[in-house]
Amino acid sequence: MNHIFSSVFVVDRRYYPTDLFETKLDQVQKADPKGYQRIRKTIDRLLVDPSISDGKMKGVYHGRLKKYVGRRDYRLIYYWCERCLKENKRLHCGPIPNNSVIFFDLYHKKDKKKLKQLA
What we know:
Layout: E1 14-17, H1 19-31, H2 33-48, E2 65-69, E3 74-80, H3 81-86, E4 100-108, H4 112-117
Parallel strand pairs: 1-4
Antiparallel strand pairs: 2-3, 3-4
């Protein structure tokens, strides 16, 4: 008889959105409710496992992590406090707990050029 033992360690990570992220998420909720639901599901997955990023950002958000929400829709820009500590960056985040995932920005793929112009 084969027994497969799997241990799942659930880490309680905290959702920590910036003001900019919350503002944009509220706008998406009003303008695109289905897109908002996809974004919330992606945020939930990132809180379970923040290492599932789709790469690092260049430009304005250099070094931050990005996650695609669908192929043609939204992008989330975030960072994971535990990773920051491992990389010894110590960004002086103040009262933000070490188990947080910080969400910096949210943008639609069609607005990517506007993001580059901010630099």
